[in-house]
Design a protein that fits this description.
about 25% strand; 2 domains; Rossmann fold; eight-stranded mixed β-sheet; alpha/beta; single chain; six-stranded parallel β-sheet; globular; about 230 residues
Amino acid sequence: MLEVKRYIIWGSAGHAKVLADLIDLRGGRVVALFDNDPDVQACLSGIPLFHGEEGLKDWAEHQRSLADVGAVLAIGGAKGRDRLALSHRLKVAGMALPTLVHPTAVVSKSVQYGEGCHILAGAVVAAEVAMGNLCIVNNSANVDHECQLNSGVHIAPGAVLSGCVIVGENAMIGAGAVILPRLRIGQDALVGAGSVVIRDVPDYAVVAGNPARIIRYNRSAHDDVGDSSFGKK
């Protein structure tokens, strides 16, 4: 694969601006924006905006090659499933999914990460952390030693994962949340901003508070969804 110098960004909002700055720091340039919302305007001056998969198809047909194009997904929040699904379509189209690491982030040489991850300004990712595909470690977040972030995870600004935490696919840890050591955050779970998590969080649970307690599930609860005693005295 050729070295990536040209980038497209899928998503035309604030997160795209952050990623465009990072791409510029890496010596690359953004050549196109894409968004599924037909009412969204281009968030980057001078960069053309295309809408949906038809827009991607039209743009791609006018390119000599996509082998040197990196696709960057500016879809944050609890939308890991959306990022993963879209990444597959972009790979099929022939684009790379580069991982972007901000030069002010502190990342151990022993960290392993998959495709399309974003490690942003001031973040710390410590020894032997393992990250799947399309993970976001946002500004000033701290992921301590031997944590495992499965694909689609988003760690929001200022959140702290103590050592040996496992975060399931597509889960989101809200801004400023603290996760105590050796806990498991279930897949598609959402930890509210500022929460302090002192015990495992079940799959699909939305938790908040200090200590964090379940406030709802983010899909219909099933008999096998977590432990209903979470957060109870």
